[in-house]
From TrEMBL:
Underlying gene: bglB
Any single Gene Ontology cellular-component annotation: cytosol
Taxonomic source organism: Streptomyces poonensis
Protein name in the entry: Beta-glucosidase
Listed GO MF terms: beta-glucosidase activity
Gene3D superfamilies membership: Glycosidases
EC number, as in UniProt: 3.2.1.21
């Protein structure tokens, strides 16, 4: 069933502070990822990823939810591209499913899997929407996990091969490529905290995984540039930790340093500066967890990039812990939060963008994700069934204003992708957390744009027409 129309209903007012700092050619987009929306888990030759295995492991995901069907985007893609078009967005960031394109993570391309992305890219271009393809948004083929996963060096080479296949097939029409989404989550949450696939809990495996993800990134950048028929723009997306000490006490300040080292500098320093931070190496050494660097790795990792993607949702206020990573989060219970519950702290985005500019140079920056889960099922719904998510509108307005302030302070931020186009499978939280601009009724798969979708449409319009 087609979604409720986004026309011609006007949105809630767009405050000028939300868009004043953004240029007329700013890129306005929305983002999703393959496992979170596609479904069709066993169709057209796709094999299992670590998230298929993990989500079918009892107790791993809330309510036993999994991505077998998700938003059924694999079968409803034209309707979903229509939603983007109705919202007048310039760009769509999606991810390619590795086990759909290269089942098992080895060997030849799967033509039927690639055909889906061919159709998606063509549909986007036909509607004037620029595709931004992420190569890895956490769905490692299960066979590669069985062979050691990201802690095994070979996975980096497998990833580069897959990246080349994707770039050769789609790079005649896709210009913007993102190698990895949030390697912090793949490495730390997947191999140390055990709350994401593959659910392992081993500190040295986490830093091995981080190193091989970064090596895979560097090799993939080279493959994309070698294989794409047209000159690509290639970047990587991080979700740097914005770490604040719980107090001025030296031990809290030290905990924040460790959180920053593990959550931010572990990734950005090698990718941008070609080295791991000395203080981080000293932290890791007692746990036999220094990254397994071989000759040439750091040069391979530090490929020149065309842009950096930044995902931001919240800050992390920390104090010490006796665990190997050395810090724990202190919930900010007296502050407003989203349904996750993550503290709402837009100033952290301004600080993060200006810090990246200061410490990592003047690469163009794109906000490749920002958004919020709220309890939409408890929000008011208007007569057309539209969720009146005023809390999400306020979140978006405040964070866009924070981007404008970062630009005024010199950060070269060129675009903003809202997470997410539609409600979807929120990893270990299953379908309980709704981040979408568009509401999805999972029983009927009916899509209904929320008030925030219309607001983002009008914010983009306001920014373009000033
Ligand atoms: O849903 C995720 C996304 O897959 C990666 N970044 C954070 C989002 C919200 O948790």
């Amino acid at each position: 069933m087609t979604a409720a129309s986004t026309e011609p209903v006007p949105s809630a007012p767009v405050p000028s502070e939300a868009v004043d700092g953004l240029p007329v050619d700013f890129v306005w987009g929305a983002a999703t990822s393959a496992y979170q929306i596609e479904g069709a888990a066993a169709e057209d030759g796709r094999t299992a990823s670590i998230w298929d295995t993990f989500s079918h492991t009892p107790g791993a995901v809330a309510d036993g939810d999994h991505g077998d069907v998700a938003c059924d985007h694999y079968h409803r893609m034209p309707e979903d591209v229509g939603l983007l078009a109705d919202l007048g967005l310039d760009a769509y960031r999606f991810s390619l499913s590795w086990p759909r394109i290269q089942p098992g993570g080895k060997g030849p391309a799967n033509a039927r899997g690639l055909a889906f992305y061919d159709r998606l890219v063509d549909e986007l271009l036909a509607k004037g929407i620029t595709p931004w393809a992420t190569l890895y948004h956490w769905d490692l083929p299960q066979e590669l996990e069985d062979a050691g996963g990201w802690p095994a060096r070979d996975t980096a080479y497998r990833f580069a091969e897959y990246a080349g296949i994707a770039a050769a097939a789609l790079g005649d029409r896709v210009t913007n490529w993102i190698t990895l989404n949030e390697p912090y989550c793949s490495a730390q949450l997947g191999y140390y905290n055990g709350i994401h696939a593959p659910g392992r809990k081993h500190f040295p495996d986490f830093t091995k995984a981080a190193h091989h993800l970064l090596l895979g990134h560097g090799l993939a950048v080279q493959e994309v540039r070698a294989q794409a028929p047209r000159p690509p723009r290639v970047g990587i997306t991080f979700n740097p930790t914005v770490a604040h000490p719980a107090s001025d006490a030296p031990e809290d300040v030290e905990a924040a340093r460790r959180a920053d080292a593990l959550g931010t500098r572990l990734y950005l320093d090698p990718v941008v500066h070609g080295r791991y931070p000395e203080d981080l190496l000293a932290d890791l050494e007692p746990y036999s967890a220094t990254p397994p660097v071989q000759d040439g790795d750091l040069e391979a990792i530090a490929q020149p990039l065309d842009f950096l993607g930044v995902n931001y949702y919240f800050r992390n206020v920390v104090r010490p812990s006796a665990e190997p990573h050395g810090y724990e989060s202190v919930p900010q219970t007296d502050r407003p939060s989203t349904a996750m519950p993550w503290e709402i702290y837009p100033e952290g985005l301004t600080d993060l963008l200006t810090r990246i500019t200061r410490e990592y140079g003047a690469l163009p920056l794109y906000i490749t994700e920002n958004g919020a889960a709220f309890d939409d099922e408890k929000s008011a719904v208007d007569e057309s069934g539209r969720v009146q998510d005023t809390d999400r509108i306020a979140y978006l307005a405040d964070h866009l204003a924070a981007v404008g302030r970062a630009r005024a302070a010199g950060a070269d931020v060129r675009g903003y992708f809202c997470w997410s186009l539609m409600d979807n499978f929120e990893w270990a939280y299953g379908y309980a957390k709704r981040f979408g601009l568009v509401h999805v009724d999972y029983a009927t798969q009916r899509r209904t744009p929320k008030a925030s979708a219309l607001w983002l449409r009008d914010a983009a319009r306001a920014a373009r027409t000033r």
